[in-house]
Amino acid sequence: MPITRRTVLRNAAALPIGAALAPAIIGRARAAGMTMKLSSSQANDPRYANGRVYYENLVKALKANGLDGQINVQFFPDNQLGQEIDVINSVKLGVIDMMVSGTSISANLVPLVGVYDLGYLFQSYQQQTKALDAGAAKPVEDALLKGANIRIISWAYNFGARSVLAKKPVNGPADLAGLKIRTLPNPIITECLRLMGAAATPLAFGEIYTALQAGVLDGLEHDPPTIVASKFYETAKFYSLTEHIYSPLATYFSDATFRRMDPKLREGFLDAAGKAAIDTRAHGLAVEKDAMEALKEKGVTIIACDREAFRQRVLPQTENFIKAHPDAKPIVDAVRATTA
Fold first, then answer.
1. Which residue in 78, 146, 166, 252 has the fewest CB atoms around it within 10 Å?
2. Around 79, how many Cα atoms within 13 Å sit in the side-chain half-sphere?
3. Over its length of 340 residues, how does the chain's per-residue pLDDT go in tens digits?
4. Is the dihedral of CA 307, 339, 107, 90 positive or negative?
5. Could you give the number of structural domains in the chain?
6. Does residue 222 contact residue 241 with C-beta atoms inside 8 Å?
7. Which domain covers residue 92, as residue numbers?
8. Dist. CA 325–CA 315, nearest whole Å
9. Rounded distance, CA 307 to CA 304, Å?
10. DSSP 215-255
11. What residues have CB less than 8 Å from 255, skipping those under 6 apart?
């Protein structure tokens, strides 16, 4: 007998109410699964790009926590959702749910966050973790939530300290003098490079490669894996290990999205975000060494420069920052009280 619409309706009417409605309820629950957008400025590289690595670790952790299908994350690398300054403002407004980036970009919204980007504040990433866990993170997290409606739900590492890649060798401050070195569009990092001797040039990440090609820039400062993933080594061949900034990698989460989230899902989601950060830290420490070898293979000369000379020039920056932002002193003290 052919199955008609009338037959289906008649059979459904004969079933108990719960049974008749069950398929619709299940379908609706699936459709209601929360989908979030995660943005990263970096390339879609599964090994060297911290955004992609964090995303994959987050998906794995969500599945392990039984949230697969209930919380779905869409990944948008390589500035697909816009330049970082636009994205962080969209996270503030709840238009974009999440962003993986360093702290310098959010310092444009809440200046206190810039404390983590002070030159030569951290000695290593291991020390950074100890300091954040010991209390150096909470004042910044509270300030960002209050001032920009953004939660930091986990801390990881950028994949290596920031150092200077240039078109000529840089052994000390005298060699850096006058070179147009790209910095993040952030006054703290710009000032750090200026004190080191460079003609610091703020520029959006997505514009670096063409600016190097065109000669608008003489170099940039970044970590080794990012340089490899973005192929900046094609336009500059000298990497000086200034190691001036150990930049934290933050997972920014819109408070508007957090409030929309089913309270029953929040604990599992935040736990997954934390686990993803731990896995990303371990990956970052390992891949930094691989990236250094990759740079050598690409013909980049690695220079063990005079770090102490650069550090001495940058020292006043921290004290000046504390004078301008007294609430930064407990954070700096907590960092200095820890060892690598």
1. 146
2. 11
3. 444 434 433 343 333 333 333 333 223 333 358 999 999 999 899 998 999 999 999 999 999 999 999 999 999 999 999 999 999 999 999 999 999 999 988 998 999 999 999 999 999 999 999 999 999 999 999 999 999 999 999 999 989 999 999 999 999 999 999 999 999 888 899 999 999 999 999 998 889 999 999 999 999 999 999 899 899 999 999 999 999 999 899 999 999 999 999 999 999 999 999 999 999 999 999 999 999 999 999 999 999 999 999 999 999 999 999 999 999 999 999 999 998 6
4. positive
5. 2
6. no
7. 32-159+247-288
8. 16
9. 8
10. TS-SEEEE-HHHHHHTTGGGT--EEEEEEEE--EEEEEEEH
11. 94, 145, 149, 150, 151
C-alpha dist (Å) from residue 222 to 216, 239, 242: 17, 10, 10
Closest CA to 186 of 94, 111, 92: 111
User: Which residue type occupies 245?
Assistant: I
pTM of the full predicted structure? 0.82
Tallying the residues shown for the chain, one arrives at: 340
Cβ pair 114, 183 in contact under 8 A = no
In a domain, 51, yes or no: yes
CATH of the domain at 183: 3.40.190.170
Residue 98: its H or E element? strand 98-102
41 and 182, same domain (yes or no): no
